[in-house]
Structures are given as C-alpha cells and as structure tokens.
Task: structure prediction
Amino acid sequence: MIPFNKPTYLGNEIECLKKVLRNNKLSGDGEFTLLCNKWFEENIKCKKAFITTSCTHALEISAILADIKEGDEVIMPSFTFVSTANAFVLRRAKIVFVDIRPDTMNIDENLIESAITSKTKAIVVMHYAGIACEMDKILSIAGKYNLVVIEDAAHSIMAKYKNKFLGTIGDIGTFSFHETKNMICGEGGAIIINDGKYIERAEIIREKGTNRSKFYRGEVEKYTWIDIGSSYLPGELNAAYLFAQLENADKILNERMKSWKFYYENLKQIAEDKIIEISVIPKDCAHNAHIFFIKTKNITERKLLVEFLKTKDIMTVYHYIPLHSSAAGIIYGRFNGKDVYTTKESERLLRLPLFYGITSSEISYVCENIIDFYKR
Result:
C-alpha cells in the first residue's frame, strides 16, 4: 500500500523529546516552546510568533484580536477547512463566502470588493496547497475599507509570495502542524503577529486571559485575569518534536519539492493532452510542495479513478466539500454572487500521495497507474 500520508519523521526528534523529560517540564512555554517562537521570528521575519495547540486555536485568537462581534461579517472562500469559518462563527459573525479561482483554488481577489458591506470586519484568505493568494490586491482592498486581513496559512510553512513568507503578509497569520502537514508535532499550530498592536493582547488571550507571562518575566508582582482567553499553549513534548523539524525546514522543503517536481514531470504529458489538469503556480508564488493535486473531468471520473487506484494499493483523497453547501454553512453564512467554480472544481480535485520520504519508484508507480487508467 502507498498511503496518502506518512507523518514527517527525521530521527532527531527523539533527542529533543528526551531533553524535555530530563528537564522535567512538560507544560507549555518551556524551553522548546520559546525556541519555536524564536525560530519563526528569526526565519520568517515576523514581529511576534506564538505556537499554539492547533491552527484552529490560532484562528480563534485571531478572531478575538480582530474584535469580531455579533453581526460582523467576515469574507472568506467556501473551499477551505471548517476551522477557517468556525473561529469567526464562535464570535457570532456572519460568514460571507466568495467564489474561488479555478487555477489556484484560492479566493478570487476580483470578487472580494463586491462582497463588502458596512458590516464587513475582516478578510480571511486561505493559501491552498501552499500556493499564495493574490495578496497585493487583497491588501489594497483591505486598506481601502479599513479591514483586518488574516492569513490561514495552514498549508503554507516556508511558501512565499513576492519573496515574502506566507503568514507574514496580512495583519495576522496562522500555521498548522497537524500530522498531515509538511512540518508537524501531531497536533499544533502557530499565530503570527505582523501588526505590533496585537502582540500584547495575543499573549494574554493565549494564556487564558491572564498576564502570567509578564509575571514569569518579572514585569508584574502577581498575575491575574484581565481579558478573555483560553488555554492555547501546547505541551513541551509537542514543541520539542516541532522544533526538531523546524531546524531542518530547508531539508524537508527540498525533499518535498523534489517529489512534487517528479510528479509534475511524470504527468505533464497527459495534462498537455487535456486528459487531466495539474497544479498551476503563478509567477509571483514560491510554493512549498504541500499538495500535489490533479483534476479529473468531473466527479464521476474522479470516483472511478479513486476506485481504480485503490485496487492498485494506492490511497488518494479529495479535499473539502464547500462550506456554503454544508448544514452549518447554510445557517452561519451566505454565498455572495454565483458559485461558478467552488463546487465544480472541488468535485474534480484529487490529491495524490505526497510525504517526506516517498520514493521516486512509489511516485512512478502512482503515475503509471493514473496513465494506465486513462488508457483503459
């Protein structure tokens, strides 16, 4: 069986985990948590970073920082994971879904302005597969209407737009380190603060609404409850596992890019023959090989291909069912304009096995069987 995913494992994680146990410090904000935060600040050049228990929780912190309240509207794509919307629904916002671009599967930047109303508070972009949204135009629109821009960069560690790391371009960014991502700790995330006015409050929200971090730094004599918040600190074992991989970020990126390019070369011909479609990378984007996807002609063909590959011991998966058509999406959101591409393109997309350590022979086997399926 060629699985769809294998969690990234390099080997040096063990020594970091052992060090945590020797230090006898398992709760959050220990040595490795601080090392992870510092890594982000130094390597992706953000003002402040805090690792969290998940990208979901990083988005929840973002919603509080953006001061989302009942009746506010938040614009985002419908083709995204439920957490992108849930974080703002929990603040009682109305989600306004906008159609996607068929080439990148990202929010269509040309449709955002028409979705803005007097109630709009924020734009949330999701960089699908580590391929950047058109951030210059999005930031221009946000500036015109005084809107907060939040980047859901769950897929996008080490990816860039015009030589800027994704997650560092909007007011706030978020990352995921779930075991399906490029760099992992099982469950984990990070919130990236790019507007300095959010730094102090983000630290307080993350620490259950207290100023405990200031207390530990000796800045206050005792800590107390001063704001809303929750327990968003990951344990030190998670932080240690993550830090071991952050130290090898370039190695992981290069290995995945090699695999992604091998897929591309093997499937390029049947894409040029219009049998399938493969990923499009805009010229201003440097992606991170998080996902290699193809598109079939329709949902029926995709189902047949999935079943055929399964008989060959190849596991493939598709991605999100658009949120606006889900039971909760109907209640908590609305689709602005026409759904020209969101549903149609989501029904064609198929993700192929891609993980750190996949071999060229495994990729060749996957590609050979896809080609064989279409020959049949």
Summary: The CA atoms of residues 95 and 193 lie 23 Å apart. The chain has a mean pLDDT of 97. The chain has two domains: 13-248, 250-375.
